[in-house]
Design a protein that fits this description.
6 helices; 7 strands; alpha/beta
Length: about 190
Amino acid sequence: MADNAWLIAGLGNPGARYQHTRHNIGQMVLDELLDRMGASYTRTKVGAKAVGARLGEGGPKAIFAISEGYMNVSGKPIRKVMDYFNVPPETLLVVHDEVDLDFGRLKLKRGGSEGGHNGLKSISEHLDGNRDYLRLRVGVGRPPGQMDTSAHVLQKFSAEEQKELPGVIDRAADAVESVLLEGLTTAQNRFH
């Protein structure tokens, strides 16, 4: 993979403890995309796992990456992958959990605030404050009652949510493909 590639970054935390938590839905979406392409991650020297692939024959070049560190420090390895592959912020798409959206709801946007999301804050910080990158926000819902937001996102999905989760992940992977193949506006019209 060389210039003019997209970087698709799936946010989450490493290790079995966090594997199926709400905070890791970004990584789950990337896993689905890699399954569709028959690809697998390779360890890099920058603290991320990554793989380069094309979406379909003659499709756009993309690098799919997940940080091997925790969510709140994901910006540094993502920036290093961007630098290595010469990916500008305009072709960075970050897939992440979003508590301000109902479970399963998707929202695509370019730029804006990080909304309290530590993974996005870390990325913006390592892009020297540049927020002009794409985000696929995957709804995981608000915490119930007085539950702390950080406790909520670090929990596994409820039994009811787990029944719907494969469909949510599949639809989010479709949204990523749509952005790369059809552009942001078309993808927004299809998935909002």
